[in-house]
Amino acid sequence: MDNSSRQKAILDKVAVGLSGLCLLHCLLLPFVVAVLPFLGQFGNNHFHAELLLFVVPVSVIALGVGYRRHHRVAVLVFGAVGLIILAVGGTYVHDAYGEMADRAMTVTGSIILAFTHFKNFRLAKKDLLLISQ
Questions:
Q1: Closest CA relative to residue 102, chosen from 110, 91, 114, 116
Q2: Which among 63, 60, 61, 57 is positioned nearest to 121, based on CA atoms?
Q3: Residue 2, CB half-sphere, CA atoms under 13 Å: how many?
Q4: Angle at 47 between CA 57 and CA 118, to 5 degrees
């Protein structure tokens, strides 16, 4: 695997990790706040909006680089859908409908995005192996 391919694989892994972090945050934060009341002061912060500042650029770069390798438009479409759901859930839905609606959309978007990055990584790796043979 050449240096460029390693960088692409790393970007997909980072993107999957960030999606997983978002998912864990959405599912575990309510339990942490309930069990450890002194962390309640952090429950009012809007972490989803700040996390988007990292998730969006990493995902766009990783999916774009993978697309250049495998040319599967469906991967870009699913990635865009996941990012849109995350962005809308973490911004507009949070303000308009509250934390539970935000959490539902964020979990959905995270799952779609994590699956998409996994697929992107697998397709790019598969195509790389075919090219090197």
A1: 91
A2: 63
A3: 6
A4: 45
How far from 104 is each of 25, 39, 65, CA to CA, in Å?
A: 12, 22, 29
CA 85, 63, 74, 116 torsion-angle sign: negative
- Alpha-carbon distance of 78 to 62, in angstroms, equals 13
pLDDT of residue 2: 66
Q: Which residues of 10-36 are buried (b: 16+ CB within 10 A; e: fewer)?
A: ebbebbbebbeebbebbeebeeebeee
Backbone phi and psi for residue 80, each to the nearest 5 degrees, phi listed first: -65, -40
Which residue, chain included where needed, has tokens 């195509």? 127
Quick one: pLDDT at residue 23?
65
State pLDDT tens for residues 6-59: 777 788 788 877 777 766 666 665 555 454 454 444 455 566 777 788 888 888
* Per-residue pLDDT at 85: 95
